[in-house]
Amino acid sequence: VIVGGGIAGVSTAGSLRSGGFDGDLTLVDVGDFPYDRPPLSKDFLAGTKDIKQIALQPSQWYDDQRIRLVNRTAVTALRPREARVELADGTLLPADRVVLATGGRAARPPIPGIGSERVHVLRTAGDADRLRTALVPGAAVLVVGAGLIGAEVASTALQLGCEVTLVDPLAAPLEPVLGPELAGWLHDLHTGKGVTTVRAAVESFTDRGEHIEVRFRGRSGEWSYAVVVVGVGMVPQTALAEQAGLEVGRGIVVDSGQVTSNPAVLAVGDPARTRREARAEHWEAAQHDGARAAATLLGSDAPAPTAPWFWTDRHGRHVEAVGHMEWADRTVVRGSFDDPAFSVFGLRDGHVVAAAAVDDSTAVRAARRMIDRRVPADAGRLTDLSVNLRSLLRG
pLDDT tens digits, residue range 350-362? Predict the structure, then answer.
């Protein structure tokens, strides 16, 4: 039984079947069907795609893969000793092994007034539906948090005709993963597109009925908005794991094969964390977790690890990043920040350890291969636009 229908849960199910698993396979999901989450802050929020268009798999796929999809319900208890899983209606499902793909919930920091109906978060399709109705043209919108979700929501709200303010205490959000230059350039992009940026933390919200007043820490006065969106991260859903007595600490603790402290239970995706590492909260990381969990259950070799990768879109620009920019001791730029497309490479000890690019997916793909293969890199050739990056893979 797989608990949760996000990308981690669906990837686990698909990898089990493609790997030859022939037993009973059940996927339990609280929604109507498993859907993709990245579009929630972009196409789905903008109304250019509906819920069926962001389904992770067509409904026929579950039948073809002989996956029993139990939807519109939740798992309320794990009973690994009894080899059972209990649903909200009391139904008991037989489960020799359980995979927890429970995801997370949107973080709500303890800010006075955050419980107002005018304060939104974005984690589910339901959240996006409610937010979309509020993002009417001309509405004054405050987005709290300028990370991936906050920046994407600000961009979409602007696209919908709202007057957008983006607040964050950091001068260059995403600096650890993109480097200071690119992180600063991306944050400045908001201002260039018409978003008002504020460097501050929120002190309080006060609902006045027709609007909500916001006080920023260290600044006098209050500012008035029709809508507030809080995008400051997520909290892993660990309640089931805790109830079952599994080891939990900043997430559900797993080994390299995604196995929890109970060998009958595995965990994948946003809530899973190996003992020595932080949780990875990106789409592809969850997908890879599913493949590793399936390999563990099948007794086969796990896929080779690759450098972490993620993407984001804002104001019509596509951004990708791979590796660990915080590991780099120097960065070099291929192209120019004034070019339509450019990339930044992070180097250490003569090797690429990270890359980030704007509208240049080819550079990130090449960098990923260089990182994974530990190919020596020459900064001059990386920045020479006449050099085909694929030629550098030979070292």
Answer: 999 999 999 999 9
The residues with which 104 forms a beta bridge, in sequence order, are 236
Place of tokens 């932080």: 278
pLDDT in tens, 302-315: 988 899 999 999 99
Residues 225 and 144 reside in one and the same domain = yes
291 and 386 belong to one structural domain: no
CA–CA gap between residue 359 and residue 293 (Å, rounded): 33
DSSP 48-81: SS-GGGGBSS-HHHHHHTT-EEE-S--EEEEEGG
Q: Residue 15 has what pLDDT?
A: 98
Q: Tell whether 203 is covered by a domain.
A: yes
310: Cβ contacts below 8 Å, ≥ 6 apart: 148, 177, 282, 283, 284, 320, 321
* Single-letter amino acid code for the residue at 167: V
Question: Over the Cα atoms of the chain, what is R_g?
Answer: 22
205 pairs with which residues across the strands? 214
Burial call 201-214: b when 16+ CB within 10 Å, e when fewer: bbeebeeeeeebeb
C-alpha span between 146 and 157 (Å, rounded): 14
The residue assigned the tokens 């190919």 is 375
pLDDT given for residue 321 in this prediction: 97
Determine contact, residues 195/159, Cβ cutoff 8 Å.
Answer: no
Could you tell me if 194 and 335 lie in one domain? no
| CB atoms closer than 10 angstroms to residue 228 | 26
pTM attached to this predicted model = 0.95
pLDDT in tens, 81-112: 888 999 999 999 999 999 999 999 999 999 99
**CA distances to 14, 259, 288 from 293, in Å:** 11, 8, 9
- Give how many domains the chain has, as a whole number: 3
Q: Among candidates 334, 331, 286, 314, which has minimal Cα distance to 187? A: 314
Q: What is the pLDDT of residue 19?
A: 97
357 and 260 in a common domain: no
Residue-number span of the structural domain to which 16 is assigned: 2-105+235-298
Structure tokens at 394: 């030979």
How far is residue 151's CA from residue 63's CA, in Å, rounded to a whole number? Answer: 38
| SS3 assignment, position 135 | coil
Which tens digits make up the pLDDT trace of 2-59?
999 999 999 999 999 999 999 999 999 999 999 999 999 999 999 999 999 999 999 9
Q: Are residues 219 and 161 in the same domain?
A: yes
